[in-house]
């Protein structure tokens, strides 16, 4: 067993033992037990670093699979790594871009502006003008940032995944993770990690987002410098402003906080329901607010994709939520893969109605409470939740959290209501939809008239 | 069958329109109220909300017609052109990046004296 392998086993076993003791050896209430275990797993993942940070981040966006407590706790996971020495990054940059660093950039600051387990970011100055895929040309002398995969990070992450696979197959872990398809999760995780280790994927997503929001002056996406990018190096325009996680009251006073909160929430709905591509890793440190009251999106590591049919179905499910119409929400959720067995339809419908009334009525709404409550309701009734569905509910809850950080009194459902209503209204006008629906509408009207 | 009575026919026609108009106005009012705290929720709430937005659209349309402004909307042709423009630009980005990779390989080979 390698040193890393022993460290992982030791750390996870210690976390499990601590959690068992702290939860009174199983005597504490179920919610307390789950909260204690979640906190210990989070500390253990933070301590282990590497792939476990990424795995924790993935768990944080999958409340459908891991439960609200663990997903919520993993949101607090911090990627605390010491910066790698810049000298160690130089070979990665030079081997990736084929020239000495001095020739590639006008200048590059050896002190990183951001550090994480996979990559490190350095400020630099562009040596020659570059016409990006979308947007104005970046002139020579433009301020840029260079994101570099840390040396050895890819191998370390892959080896951690292999170790996680070995551990997952042990009796103890199978018992701890019962009910969770850990093999499928690790396969998905390994696949997403490989995508994240190729920075070109992130660059292409950023270009596409810039194009999607080309008519929106309130949304900014950094322009990518492809002549200075490779699978391990991504060079892009530098953004100035405040990360949402760093924004304080004084700074908020200087920007249009309400307008930004509403616009940010609407922009997310456009991603989901119009473009079919959405930033699925929205958290306060991935969003910048610029001094001229614009929202800058950063870090396109996790992106959700939707088909045209799914976009329409999601608009309908959301309409079911905002109009507290449980039947509509369940009908279209079924088309998204949430299959409620016939003998449970009445019970689920009643429970969903109660949850909608409790969380989405009476003037102020709480989507996070509702969304996680709904996923819990499905789980309690033994209904399988497709990964994409869980990710979307979580993303919407996160958007609400992000918008509330900007403007605490924002009602996300008030923002969603006109948006989904218009979306559905627009879809009714298509000839195909008319052809599909008019016969039934005509029959229903005649049945009512002639009853 | 009784003889056709134009008076009755138009009275029925007018009555139907009046009823439909009243129902629409009521739906718009419920939809507007529903935007605030008073929304009751349920299957009809969406229809009411939709009708409230239709009324807003009608108000906008009337305003546009009164001011003589034409509707400003991007044509599907513009959208398609932009989409193709993006695809070409994206291809250029990929070529830029591939050129960098080629230059890297060339530099590597020349350093090895190949």
What report would you give on this structure?
- The complex is a heterodimer of chains A (451) and B (114).
- Helices cover 59% and strands 10% of the residues of chain A.
- By secondary structure, chain A is of the alpha+beta class.
- Chain A has a 4-stranded antiparallel beta sheet with strand order 1-2-3-5.
- In chain A, helix 2 (30-48) runs parallel beside helix 5 (68-74), helix 8 runs antiparallel to helix 10 and helix 17 (367-380) packs antiparallel against helix 18.
- The mean pLDDT of chain A is 86.
- Chain B is mainly alpha-helical and 114 residues long.
- Chain B is 79% helix and 0% strand.
- In chain B, helix 1 packs across helix 2 (43-67).
- Chain B is elongated and about 105 Å long.
- Chain A binds chain B through residues 95-99, 131-134, 200, 203-204, 207-208, 211, 214-215, 224, 226-230, 319, 323-325, 327-328, 356-357, 360-363, 414, 417-418, 421-422, 424-425, and chain B through 35-37, 39, 41-43, 45-46, 49-50, 53-54, 74, 82, 86, 89-90, 92-94, 96-97, 99-101, 103-108.
């Amino acid at each position: 067993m390698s040193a890393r392998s022993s460290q992982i086993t030791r750390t996870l076993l210690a976390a499990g033992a601590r959690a068992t003791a702290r939860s009174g050896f199983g005597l504490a209430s179920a919610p307390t037990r789950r909260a204690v275990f979640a906190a210990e797993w989070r500390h253990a993942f933070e301590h282990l670093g590497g792939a476990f940070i990424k795995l924790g981040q993935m768990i944080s966006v999958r409340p459908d699979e891991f439960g609200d407590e663990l997903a919520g706790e993993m949101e607090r996971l911090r990627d605390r790594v010491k910066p790698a020495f810049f000298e160690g990054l130089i070979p990665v940059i030079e081997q990736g871009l084929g020239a000495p660093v001095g020739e590639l950039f006008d200048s590059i600051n050896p002190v990183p502006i951001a550090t994480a387990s996979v990559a490190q970011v350095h400020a630099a100055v562009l040596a020659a003008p570059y016409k990006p895929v979308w947007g104005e040309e970046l002139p020579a002398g433009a301020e840029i940032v260079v994101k570099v995969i840390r040396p050895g990070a890819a191998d370390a992450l892959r080896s951690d995944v292999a170790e996680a696979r070995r551990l997952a197959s042990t009796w103890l872990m199978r018992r701890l993770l019962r009910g969770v398809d850990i093999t499928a999760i690790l396969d998905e995780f390994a696949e997403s990690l490989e995508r994240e280790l190729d920075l070109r994927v992130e660059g292409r997503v950023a270009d596409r987002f810039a194009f999607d929001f080309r008519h929106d002056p309130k949304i900014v996406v950094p322009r990518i410098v492809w002549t200075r990018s490779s699978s391990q190096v991504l060079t892009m325009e530098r953004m100035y402003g405040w990360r949402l996680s760093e924004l304080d009251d004084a700074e908020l006073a200087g920007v249009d906080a309400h307008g930004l909160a509403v616009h940010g929430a609407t922009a997310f709905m456009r991603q989901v329901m119009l473009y079919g591509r959405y930033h699925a890793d929205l958290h306060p440190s991935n969003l910048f607010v610029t001094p001229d009251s614009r929202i800058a999106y950063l870090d396109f590591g996790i992106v959700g994709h939707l088909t045209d049919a799914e976009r329409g179905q999601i608009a309908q499910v959301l309409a079911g939520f905002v109009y507290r119409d449980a039947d509509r929400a369940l009908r279209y959720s079924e088309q998204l893969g949430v299959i409620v067995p016939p003998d449970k339809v009445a019970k689920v419908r009643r429970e969903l109605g109660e949850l909608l009334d409790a969380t989405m009525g009476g003037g102020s709404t709480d989507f996070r409470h509702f969304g996680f409550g709904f996923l819990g309701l499905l789980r309690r009734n033994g209904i399988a939740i497709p990964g994409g569905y869980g990710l979307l509910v979580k993303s919407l809850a996160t958007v609400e959290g992000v918008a509330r950080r900007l403007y605490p009194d924002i009602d996300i459902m008030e923002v969603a209501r006109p948006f989904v209503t218009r979306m559905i209204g627009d879809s009714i006008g298509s000839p195909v939809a008319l052809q599909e629906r008019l016969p039934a509408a005509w029959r229903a009207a005649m049945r009512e008239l002639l009853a | 069958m009784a003889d056709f009575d134009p008076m009755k026919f138009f009275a029925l026609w007018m009555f139907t329109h009046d009823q439909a108009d009243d129902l629409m106005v009521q739906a718009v009012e419920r939809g507007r109220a529903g935007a605030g705290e008073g929304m009751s929720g349920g299957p009809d709430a969406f229809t009411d909300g939709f009708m409230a937005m239709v009324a807003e659209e009608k108000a906008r349309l009337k305003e546009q017609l009164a001011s003589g402004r034409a509707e400003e909307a991007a044509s599907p042709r513009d959208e398609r052109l932009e989409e193709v423009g993006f695809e070409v630009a994206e291809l250029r980005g990929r070529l830029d990046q591939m050129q960098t990779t080629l230059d890297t390989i060339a530099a590597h080979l020349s350093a090895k004296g190949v």
